Amino acid sequence: MVREWTSLFVALYSLLMIYGLSLWANGSSADFLSFLKNPAVIGFSTVALVFTMFHAVTWFYLLGAVSPIKIGRSTTKPWQALVLNLILLIIISYLAIWLVVLR
Amino acid sequence: MARGATMKVETHKVARLHAILWGIFSLGGMIAAFLLPVMIYMTAIAYPFSLWPFNGTKDPSFLIAGHLLGAVFVFVTVAGSLYHGIFRFQSALTEVGLLRYRRALEAVGYFIIFVGIIVLGYYLLRWFLNGAIA
């Protein structure tokens, strides 16, 4: 049940971002940036990051439990899917930063 | 007989709609799991504390204005996460004793998702058409 409640933080962070973008749309990008530096926003977002990571880890584990892959005679375990997806998460995160910021 | 056939068609339609909604929910789950953590890191930790990749001249407005790909990244991540989060949370509420308000919860949930995605899409499209997105 904890997993279901973490989805609230996923939704609230998304709404927070939309609100931040509305500040930009109705003002300037400086409004959006100062919104991001607001201590309450930083605090909430940090909590949201922890819950989002929990959400991601349990999601990866569930993926392995729901759809195990058969390789030869053995079947993959949920923790193997978790480890593989965590490695993928690190690669995708770096790629996302590289594509949208560093490039 | 005809009524039974009509009901069967309706049941199929509802089942198909449910399958589509749960399919989008799963897609949103993948987006929330793979893309949301890095987005929160960039906007809530890296930028306010001047950490990599925002320890230079760039800031999170570059995510949207710097590149069309960045705007697509923001749209996909926020819209997918919003759908996934609201959809799961409103169904979780029905599991903790609010089952009789299911219709109302669904209506409110879909309203928030719909309005959120439309507003987000409108802003990004407006910036794109204005030339604010490079």
Explain what this protein looks like in three dimensions.
- The complex is a heterodimer of chains A (103) and B (134).
- Chain A is mainly alpha-helical and 103 residues long.
- Chain A contains four helices and two strands; from the N terminus they run H-H-H-E-E-H.
- In chain A, strands 1-2 form a two-stranded antiparallel ribbon.
- In chain A, helix 3 (39-66) crosses helix 4.
- By secondary structure, chain B is mainly alpha-helical.
- Helix content of chain B is 78%, strand content 0%.
- Chain B is elongated and about 70 Å long.
- The mean pLDDT of chain B is 91.
Briefly say what this structure is.
Chain A has four helices and two strands, in the order αααββα. Chain A is mainly alpha-helical and 103 residues long.
Number of helices of chain A: 4
Q: What is the element string of chain B, with H for helices and E for strands?
A: HHHHH
- The shape of chain A, in one word, is elongated
Overall pLDDT of chain B: 91
Q: Compute the number of helices of chain B.
A: 5
Strand order of the largest sheet of chain A: 1-2
Share of β-strand residues of chain B: under 5%
What structural category arises from helix and sheet content of chain B?
A: mainly alpha
Sheet with the most strands of chain A? 2 strands, antiparallel
Rg of chain A over CA atoms, rounded to whole Å, is 18 Å
Radius of gyration of chain B: 20 Å
Helix content of chain A: over 70%
